[in-house]
Specification:
By secondary structure, this protein is mainly α. It is 62% helix and 5% strand. It has one domain.
């Protein structure tokens, strides 16, 4: 079995980037509070069904945690 694209529920999964990053000390508590509000907006946009806008906004938040693919903040496959 293989997972090609693990994003199966954006409404639930996007906010978990914040939880994961905070629990693994990848972001500060202050950053987490800001991101929590951003992800609430992200979820609201997803619920509107206007996917291009929702996914663009949500991805900006994720990029603030992960960094850009060409300049990542850390190795997403090994966060030790």
């Amino acid at each position: 079995m293989a997972i090609g694209n693990g994003l199966v529920s954006p409404l639930i999964q996007y906010p978990e980037y914040n939880t994961f990053a905070l629990e693994n000390n990848l972001i500060t508590k202050a950053e987490s509070l800001i991101l929590r509000g951003g992800f609430k907006v992200c979820q609201s946009l997803i619920e509107t069904g206007v996917w291009p806008v929702a996914l663009e906004f949500c991805q900006i938040l994720v990029t603030s945690i992960l960094g850009l693919p060409v300049a990542p903040n850390f190795n997403v496959y090994d966060i030790r």
